[in-house]
Structures are given as C-alpha cells and as structure tokens.
Amino acid sequence: MRQTVAAIDFGTSKIVCVIAQKRAGAAYHVLGSGTVPYAGYSDGRWNDIKKLEDATYAAIREAELSAKRKVRQIYVGVPGDFTRAVCGRAKVDVMSKDRRVSKQDVLKLMRRAEQPLRTQHYKILHRRPVYFTLDTRERMVNPIGARTSTLAGNISCILADSLFLRQTHALMEYLGLEIAAHVSTMVGMLTSMIPREEKDVGCVLVDAGFATSTVSLVQGDGIVYQETIPYGACEIVTDLMGGLNINYEEADAIKRRYAFGLDNEGQMQLMSFVDRTDRVKKYSVESVSEVIEARVEEVIDQIMEVIERSGYRLAARSMVYLAGGGLATMRGIRQFASALLNRNVQVITPQAPGVNNPVYASVLGLIDYACYPDALQQSTGLFSFLQR
Fold first, then answer.
1. CA 203/CA 197 separation, integer angstroms
2. What is this structure's pTM?
3. Which of 135, 138, 146, 157 is nearest to 106 (CA)?
4. Structural contact between residues 318 and 204, judged by C-beta atoms closer than 8 angstroms
5. How far apart are CA 34 and CA 27, in angstroms?
6. Helix, strand or coil, per DSSP, at residue 146
C-alpha cells in the first residue's frame, strides 16, 4: 500500500494542511488540503493561542475530509519567524592511515560545528554543508574518499525556537497526532523547489506572507544567512483601506485583482468587483496603482537591505525566488520585482493539481521533504546519514 504523508504549515494569517500519497520516483499525488484563517503570530509569539487549537483542528479536519484519509502522523513546518540560520566553520584531523575522508570524519566535523550553538532556547533542526575544503583548499560538496590530512567545512545550522517546538508538540498530542518531524519551511522549499545549479551559484529565497517575510540567502545546500522582516501583504491592504477609504474585504479583493504593468492611458481606467451585498464597486486604476506600487517598492527595498546586511556577495546571475501568498500571487510581480532588484525573479508555483499556487509552496516543500528525504537532499548520498 502506498504511503500517505501529511504536513501542516503555520503561516502568518492561515494554517494549511496537505495530505499526499507517495508514488514511485520523485513524485506524489495530493489527496486533499485544508486552509483555515487564524490570528497568526508576531514577534515570535502567537497572537491568539487560545484559538490556535480550534484553527489547527479545522485545517486538519478539512484536509482529512477532502482526502478521505485519517491523519495519525504529521510533519510540522517551522516558519522563518521561529528559526535562525547560523553558518559556522570547523576543522578536524583525518586520522586514517591512508588519509582518506570517511563518513565518521564528516560527522565529527558537523558535530564540532554545531556544538557552540546548543542552547536551551533553540534546538538544532538541520545541519547542512555549504562546502568542504581539503589541505589544497579545494572546495567540494562531497569529500568522502578524498585524500587529505585535515578536513574543514562551512556548515549551515538551522535553529528552531524551543518554545514553538514544545507548543506544537503539545498541540498535536492533544489532537491525537504524532509529529513525524519538525522541518524548517525554508529548508523544505530550497531543497525541493530550487534547481541544483542555482543553489550552487547562490540565490535568494523569499517567503512573503501576510504579516512578515523571511529572506534566506542560499549557497549549496545550506542557508548562509536568514532574516525575517515585518513586511508583507498586510501593509498593502492597510494602505488601500486608508488611501481609498474602504474596508478590509474590499482592499483585499483589490489587491488580489491588481496586475502590475497596466497601461493607465487607455486600457483599463477602472477596477470593478461585486461585494458580498451584490453592489458593484469601481475604483480608479491610477489611484490603486499609486498605493500598491509604492508599498511593494518599500517591501522590495527591505529585501534588498537584508541582502546587503548579510555580507554575502551574490553572483551577477544569482536569482531571487519568491513564494508565499503576500506578493507571489500578484499578477506581474515577477517583472515588477525583477526591475527593482535588478535580478531575475522567479515565482515558485508548485505543479501539483489543485494546489498549484505559491501559497502552497511551503507546505508542499514539507511534503517533498517527507516523501523523498534522501533523493532530495543531495545526489551524492551525503544526506542519507547527515539527515536529522
């Protein structure tokens, strides 16, 4: 019988649960999904923890009914707001007689790199090599079998907030579910949704949500720098409400329908939609454009500042990958953001039927991670024993 896998992602405004069935090869079939709005979190804490249980149950139950499957074990995504990325360097002596690097040497190096990071407030969730170096200073991804007297490496460690881990563990236990693993949503996406060659060159992954956006700089298989900024779709909707004197529902509808790059001189002078009272509302495209584009430019500016603060120098061809429901779902955002960043921007859109939307990128990254942990981590086989 084919294995069924479930994953849940806690976004800043919605909880998304997906149930999928593992297939042969690097593929899976989505059986069902559930999406439930909730109060979310800010500053690393839940905004309404009392209602978290009901919203989580509702998302899982909706997915179960859709999939016609009962969930007993689940992968829990850890959002960027609750994780840190620390990139450190360590070195070990290769003690074998022939001076060839073994798996034990690599494991010893990884443990040495993570040792200073262990604290009561954070747990090491993932450890991933950016690259290794030998006596010759040659950089490589898989050093096993190479001859050298010393092995050094740059290791990316993803740390998760211990309180988030305890709270979600207690939550799932209360709902009668076993947690298969906690997985960084950023690691899930970069592992399965960014091409190998782009990670080797170095790239940027942005998960822009409703209230916050997490920016990760990726090199090889690791995140070398990560920062979450308090900017997302919320600012766009809020500005529309104030600028056009409209309510949240109307502002959100306008944001969803807006398309960057419209020719205001003769193509589409008005935006119109029918509200829940069946009244037709019309707004000037010029007024809407002025509000939305100014705010999106501010969000892009903040992303650029994070890249500068990281201290990492990206290659001229390094790409920016955009996921999440905050910006990635807006029509024309790829071209608009590319012009501002002066880089090629790609929107991560999962190809799974029924969930082929950037909103599902993070939760489907967890599904990929759960279904094919070894194949996705790296073709060299390193992660078959480094995987946490």
1. 10
2. 0.89
3. 146
4. yes
5. 21
6. coil
Residue from 141, 160, 4 nearest 69 by CA: 4
Where do we find the tokens 């991804």? 141
pLDDT in tens, 194-215: 999 999 899 999 999 999 999 9
**Separation in Å, CA 264 to CA 124, 285, 340:** 51, 7, 20
**DSSP class of 161:** E
What distances in angstroms separate CA 330 from CA 166, 190, 194, 218, 339, one per listed residue?
A: 35, 21, 20, 24, 15
Q: Is 164 exposed, middle or buried (0-12, 13-18, 19+ CB in 10 A)?
A: buried
Instruction: Quick: pLDDT tens for 206-255.
Output: 999 999 999 999 998 899 999 999 999 999 999 999 988 888 988 998 89
- 3-state SS assignment for residue 149: coil
Ranges under pLDDT 50 in the chain:
1, 264-268, 374-381, 383-385, 387-388
* Residue 238 Cα distances to 40, 241, 245, 254, 371, angstroms: 17, 5, 10, 12, 39
CA distance 306 to 229: 9
Helix, strand, coil percentages, rounded to 5, for the chain: 35, 30, 30
| Cα–Cα distance measured from residue 316 to residue 55, given in angstroms and rounded to the nearest whole number | 44
CA dihedral 79, 80, 83, 87 (to 10 degrees): 140
CA distances from 100 to 94, 244, 255 (A): 7, 68, 58
The answer to whether 275 and 249 have CB atoms below 8 angstroms apart is yes
Q: What is d(CA 368, CA 364) in angstroms, rounded to the nearest whole number? A: 6
Angle (CA) 177-183-184 rounded to 5° is: 140
d(CA 306, CA 77): 23
pLDDT at residue 384 in the model: 44
Q: How many CB atoms lie within 10 A of CB 387?
A: 16
DSSP state of 116: G
Query: C-alpha 179: how far from its chain's center?
Result: 19
